[in-house]
């Protein structure tokens, strides 16, 4: 069956999200899935949570089971494309960049651009959001924690863009003891720091302003396996050239490798931005 033929008709949006079995029903689009799931949430209350928690939100259930199952399958399929990094004292683990996702997992690229998803994120953040430019290898990416000690130390997801940068994390696979530890309000001198810790189960969501949430992923133990998917959205996609260089160097060293990050610049500069 072609992708086109598998697309759900608009009427599928109204099907009860819990209906089983799924095999008999045509696969829906990521956009329709998100529209259905977010329509069932108490979005006014969630927006209040996001604000009260200093631009942070955690939902243990967000993505529809079908879409989550797709992500799990794709995360396993993309394992041969993992780029591993080791930065003593800061980070150890694997990543798959948006460029590799574009080539091998268009479902994820489609989910990233889902109008329903972006609309819901705008509702939560109170900002107009844009997708990251095509040259940003971090726009959407998979993180893999597959070996003992894989982790990322305390950090912010600093925005090198002219505007704010929001991080959305989706749990994909979590056969691990890894936790997302975080501290709220660290950049707000009028509020006491508030520590917290969550695991992100498959289909669970974390959303935050990258410059506001201090966070880390605790080290994986032997024989554990964790995959999370990150989506980044910005309020202004402009970036000063020297910050672009810093951002690219960080992505090359800490995440995706120099080939992934600089290949567009090296292959004739067609997409130079
Ligand atoms: O693996 C995760 O869930 C988040 C990783 C992270 O915080 C990062 O790479 O900036
Ligand atoms: Fe982070």
TrEMBL record:
Q: Which domain of life is it from?
A: Bacteria
Query: Iron among the record's keywords?
Result: yes
Segments carrying the region annotation (Disordered) are: 1-32
Q: Which UniProt keywords apply?
A: Iron, Metal-binding, Oxidoreductase
* Every Fe2OG dioxygenase domain range: 133-235
Which Gene Ontology MF annotations are present?
metal ion binding; oxidoreductase activity
Similarity remark: Belongs to the iron/ascorbate-dependent oxidoreductase family.
This one is known as: Fe2OG dioxygenase domain-containing protein
Natural source organism: Cupriavidus plantarum
